[in-house]
Write a structure and sequence with these properties.
With about 500 residues, this protein is an all-beta fold. It is about 0% helix and about 50% strand. The protein has a five-stranded antiparallel beta sheet with strand order 1-36-35-32-33, with no helix packed on it. Strands 2-29-28-27 form a four-stranded antiparallel beta sheet, with no helix packed on it. Strand 35 and strand 36 form a beta hairpin. The longest helix has 10 residues.
């Protein structure tokens, strides 16, 4: 039988074990963690998922895919943009696409606040005027009020994808991959890394392909201060433009001049498939790339881990971090904060290792990686359904805005009303460094993992773990609250009656 021990500042019967235990528990150090301070969902009648976010002055823009019946919905999934303020109040949202499936990949803003969005389409009609082949790269420009300025398709007779975009001095450069023979270099039969430069009107200025004789895909592109660029891709062999290959698929980092010509390259990987997701510059000569790895590295968790490699332009690996558990753990975005730490967000099917959670199915995770000492910490957010984090932005005072999607109605989503399949989820993380002060009286009793309330005027109930994360919240609880979903361990229970808060430590064992 599970027993629940209430620990509070009141007279206890003389018992050396209990007294010693209480003294130890009250002095457990608390780690700086994050707590959700605000959140919202944007939902239609079907599937709405955010894949990235960016900040425009005091407002924020999220790019996603949606097949809900919004006014401008064209068919299956469409490119979908939403704009909101710092209080997560939505200004506008709009959708563009074709009768088929249109999947967005990335968005960037110009100096006027217009948005250039890239992705992929498999049909023509609706907002799409041109089709070249099986699937095309599709690029649109939208003004700051969500109105379409222009649209352009790029590609050939086969499959073509542009999934990363950066602003440069005289336009934009996009990265992806192509399988069209009209675009590939002579003799190349597999898909190659594909670079396209366009001007402000969406007109192509040049296009180039890079890679080996096997499959290669461009994944992430960044601009350097000297006008050069750096890309992350995966490669499968060491010929053509590729000078080094390690395993099945490798992280391939290439430095390019402003015209897209290859200047330098580095390869990182193990004995199995390693596929990058996002590349960032940490400081002057320090870069980081995050992706999925299935290789048998020392300290691998298994099932597909998040792998973060920090390196310099001599090709020296400065630091690596593996994040995950025994199931698939996939990074979706990474940024550098003001302390030069890396913040990684993604989705995880694990329930062990770094993914310390009692939620089931798939969870959103946030990892902070210290630069220089190999340490990292990970927190999990969501509920018992599918939850994912795809974009992260830094805010003031070490807070972060994160966007993705959720199916959950419990856990961190308790009290939110959602409709449709997946709903777009935006939440704010604030640093939470201390737990509430313990109270001398308790408005509840505990028996076999159930709280029994002694008063009927309790306005709210919140339960924290010992890292300071709020893991359960309930408004106006009934006579009792079942805690069977919590694993054995120690927690802090906070109840509110009127303007007073009552806080006690409890332990399940």
């Amino acid at each position: 039988m599970n027993k629940l021990l209430i620990l509070k500042n009141q007279t206890l019967r003389p018992n050396i074990f209990i007294t010693t235990l209480l003294a130890c528990l009250l002095h457990i150090p608390l780690l700086a963690q994050w707590d959700i301070s605000n959140q919202t969902v944007i939902n239609g009648n079907r599937d709405d998922q955010l894949v990235t976010i960016l900040q425009l002055n005091e407002s924020f823009v999220g790019l996603g895919k949606s097949d809900s019946d919004y006014d401008n919905n064209q068919g299956l999934y469409d490119f979908w943009l939403a704009k909101w303020d710092s209080d997560l109040q939505v200004f506008w949202q709009n959708a563009w696409g074709s009768p088929g499936e249109d999947i967005p990949k990335d968005v960037v803003a110009n100096d006027e606040g217009d948005l250039i969005v890239t992705g992929i389409t498999d049909s023509i009609g609706g907002n799409i005027s041109t089709s070249y082949g099986k699937s095309d790269a599709w690029v649109i420009k939208v003004d700051k009020n969500g109105e379409l300025i222009w649209e352009q398709s790029f590609g050939g007779s086969e499959d073509d994808v542009l999934e990363s975009i950066i602003a440069v001095e005289d336009g934009f450069v996009l990265l992806g991959h192509t399988n069209s023979p009209e675009i590939l270099d002579s003799g190349q039969v597999e898909k190659d890394i594909w670079l396209v430069k366009i001007n402000e009107m969406g007109e192509m200025l040049w296009q180039k392909t890079l890679g080996s004789s096997e499959e290669d895909e461009g994944k992430s592109l960044i601009a350097l201060a000297n006008g050069k660029m750096m890309l992350a891709a995966y490669i499968r062999t060491n010929d053509g433009d590729v000078s080094n290959h390690i395993g099945s698929k490798d992280f391939w980092i290439a430095q390019l001049d402003p015209n897209g010509n290859l200047e330098n390259q580095w390869t990182f990987g193990g004995n199995k498939a390693d596929v990058p997701t996002v590349l960032v510059q940490v400081e002057n000569n320090r870069f980081a790339v995050a992706g999925e790895t299935f290789s048998d590295f020392e300290n691998s968790y298994g099932g597909g881990d998040t792998w973060v490699v920090q390196f310099d332009t001599s090709g020296t690996i400065l630091q690596t971090n593996l994040i995950g558990g025994t199931s698939l753990d996939s990074p979706k975005d990474m940024i550098v904060n003001t302390l030069n730490e890396l913040m990684v967000v993604g989705e995880s099917f694990s329930i062990n290792g770094d993914i310390d959670t009692y939620y089931s199915t798939m969870n959103a995770f946030v990892s902070r990686i210290n630069t220089g000492d190999d340490n990292h910490t990970t927190q999990v957010f969501g509920g018992n359904q599918f939850d994912s984090a795809w974009g992260i932005l830094p805010l003031d005072n070490q807070a972060y805005m994160i966007a993705g999607y959720t199916d959950s109605y419990d856990g961190d989503l308790a009290g939110k009303v959602m409709h449709g399949n997946h709903d777009a989820w935006i939440f704010i993380l604030d640093v939470f460094t201390s737990l509430p002060t313990l109270s001398p009286v308790s408005p509840f009793s505990l028996h076999q993992k159930t709280l029994y309330f002694q008063q009927n005027n309790i306005e709210s109930l919140r339960i924290y773990d010992l890292q300071g994360k709020s893991i359960f919240e309930q408004k106006i609880p009934d006579y009792s609250t079942d805690l069977q979903h919590l694993p054995n361990g120690m927690y802090v229970v906070q109840t509110k009656i009127g303007n007073q808060f009552f806080t006690q430590k409890i332990m399940l064992y």
